[in-house]
Amino acid sequence: MPLLVPPAPSGTTFTTTRPAGPAPVPPAEIPPERLLYEETLPGGAGWSWSLRRHLTLRLTALENGANVSLICFNRHDLVDRYNMADTLKGQHTAKLTAGYILVSDMGRAMLSITGDTLGWHDAISGHDNAGIVRQKWGERSYQAARNEWFQNSRDHFLMELGKHGLDRRDLVANVNFFSKVTADDEGVMHYVPDHAKAGDFIDLRAEMDLLVILTTCHHPLDTAESYSPKKVKLQLWRSDPPGPGDWCRKYRPENERAFFNSEVLYI
Q1: pTM listed for this prediction
Q2: Residue 258's Cα: distance from chain center in Å?
Q3: What is the side-by-side order of every strand in the sheet holding 46-51?
Q4: Among 119, 116, 110, 62, CA closest to 86
């Protein structure tokens, strides 16, 4: 392992230069020898997984209008979890795409976005709950409808948190992959329907051992006429560790510090 040296302090602004040239192009098809796991999640489902460092989680929309709401935690220190505010302000952005990283409460790189076919993922709108679903589409219980019942991200997050000894106090602000929300000059937020098309994908490389929790429920601002969450494919694959010139590491000076903060955990 090379000698780790803390990056020099640096002040940045919205005009700080990004890496030159286009982002690296991820493989459209994961090489079979690198693919470790594959699963299709139906719309309205919840899922949690212990994701090992330097493995990549690929999320693929299987239908137009998919949404994946995601939170994550340091697998070995669960009080260290995804921090939406630090992720966005440290990288001078209100959206996420290739090059950006998800940052923890303790300033550590958690997930790097190493591949993305969309260019915009919502990081500010939160997730839906039973009240939102009821107001938009009514109510349908499991007892009455079995697997066709109406589900929501809040309940799934709480159920998956409980499996790992966590509870509602640990429910943090989430990312909504595959969804796009804009704001007009008055600050009013607008949801973009069917932003993701079937086949769109995003690659998320773990920079530390993580507990990842996600749902495939509706975005909270979804304007769909009927309850119809979309299915998503999950794939885990063996990616290469980030080198000194890694695109995400170099995307912002703040990212280099976050990578360093994660890497010192593994000395």
Answers
A1: 0.94
A2: 17
A3: 46-51, 210-215, 68-74, 175-177, 121-122, 95-96
A4: 110
